[in-house]
Amino acid sequence: xxxxxxxxxxxxxKEILKGIDLTINAGEVHAIMGPNGSGxxxxxxxxxxxxxxxxxxxxxxxxxxxxxxLSADERAHKGVFMSFQYPVEIPGxxxxxxxxxxxxxxxxxxxxxxLPAKEMLQMIREKSDLLEMDRKFLSRSLNEGFxxxxxxxxxxxxxxxxxxxxxxxxxxxxxxxxxxxxIVANGVNKLKSxxxxxxxxxxxxxxxxxxxxxxxxxxxxGKIVKSGGKELAxxxxxxxxxxxx
Amino acid sequence: xxxxxxxxxxxxxFENKGNIDLESPVHKLRTAAINKFEQLGFPAKKDxxxxxxxxxxxxxxxxxxxxxxxxxxxxxDVRQYFxxxxxxxxxxxxxxxYSPFLSHTSHEQGDICLLSSALKQPKYQMIIDHYFGxxxxxxxxxxxxxxxxxxxxxxxxxxxxxxxxxxxxxLYFSTGNEKELILQPRxxxxxxxxxxxxxxxRHQSLTTNKVLTNAVTxxxxxxxxxxxxxxxxxxxxxxxxxDNTFVQQKDSSIATVNTFSFGGKLTRNNLTFTHEGERxxxxxxxxxxxGESQHVDNHTMIHHKRENCESHELYKGIFDxxxxxxxxxxxxxxxxxxxxNAYQQNDNVLIGDKATINAKPQLEIxxxxxxxxxxxxxxxxxxxxxxxxxxxxxxxxxxxxxxxFAFGNDVVERIRIPSLKARISKLIAQKLKVDLQIQI
Lengths: 245, 440
Fold this sequence. Notes:
Chain A is α/β, with parallel strands linked by helices and 245 residues long. Chain A has helices spanning 40-48, 72-78, 95-109, 117-130, 148-162, 178-191, 231-239, and strands at 2-11, 14-24, 29-33, 54-62, 65-66, 80-83, 90-94, 141-142, 166-170, 197-202, 215-220, 223-228.
């Protein structure tokens, strides 16, 4: 599904990713772990198409096609989704209207008509229940005044609505208490299928108790320095990141 | 002949036609006003209040001052400019003259009629003498010019303890029969104790011939009165508007003026609030969304003269292309006006590379126990927010429009007439070229 080949990327001419190679197949969960500043968030931003980052070398293929030239919304239309580490607050747009707009924009890109209001409502109900979201958040301005946990839950709600092929969860566990973490992880697990893939980016092993990865990669100074099975996460937790340096 | 000389000469000619009670207070007011105008002339750039707004181009036109012909419009030609989804009273003028056919005036819940008849009829004389020209400036040239010429406009007088059930629409159409036309409408609104009225004012040119409107509105909110006034400025690009609105408030009254500036070549809003009572609340809200070479200047002034009063001011602006905006917000708090709460906020987004905004808060506070704040922001759209929306599949153009729509939303939310709110949301969507499927 996703093939990253010798990816060099950075911001303002400063190279942060220094040659990443990674292949992710449908049905898999990959965890990318690493200390602060290792390039984890840069990697997710580059895959999602954040224009502030530049790609100097290499390629990213999604289902065999390069997506480097595509804008963030075009990548979303192909099925790439990123759950933000710091979701943006947008006063004046309710969560419901935002998600409706997003759903219909994705449908339009696929040449489909708008989703009928009734079906939209039904879907919103279903997916918000999955995340045990308080309905009142749906009619509030997007993320405005939401707690850290509510914002993350809202991210996964959007993911549930958009049904992406590839979901990148950037530090989804940060700011979550243990109950919220379980709910969010449960949501992610329920959305898993043999046709989609998930990248979990995290600093700690904690989240991986709930979202069990098939593969774990350790990122250090812009390179993947170690790859392994889920047991690698435990070893890291035990020995610390110094072990891989 | 220069416009100023032409206007003064026209005034004299009108005087000589006779039929005027030379001893009446209104006539004395007009004479003093034309003399003041002759002395001051039109404001120029060297005047501090007109530093960023130039009338030069507008004053070069050869305007008709008193159009002779009465022009008839059919309802179907102008229906789109009415708020006709709900029951309203309507006072409609065509090229400065009253159109009884398009209007729906009333004397049931108070007088919702014409200034010209109020000026003529003896039964209104006491009211006119008491209110007409009493808060409009007598030393500002454009207001003086209007006072000298004003023959027609809306006269709204709501007696005490009356809630006017329907909003009142005041509409000024210009037909383009005159190649270049100057209009000087004058509105007088008096809302007595415990009464409530909602008013919508609109100026609309129906052709691309040039129109300059120099309007004056005086609004008196007596004790505990509530006045909601909406100015919908969406005229075409050959029309310009100078709006001078004066509001005087007595004890515990609430007066709100919402200004929506989307159209027009040049728009200048001079909005002056004066508190003549305690526990008064004044709300001033505005959204400006312009592009091309449009120019909108919001000049507000709130004079806190008494204790325990509040004023809330929120102006937002979105400027595209090479459009220019001005915000000048004056707040005076007299020494006696303790416990004043005065808040002013002005937020602007420049989306055109050549767009300009000149923003100037101006607070003069002489009392020591007050809460006054002002804030001003000028920026571009937030990159992070744009990326967030795009990452959810919303294309950049729509994402930008959605963010701009959201930016203005808190002002739209303050509109208390639901059908007007829907209308203005739609206008904003059109202006931002948003597909209305993006619902807010």
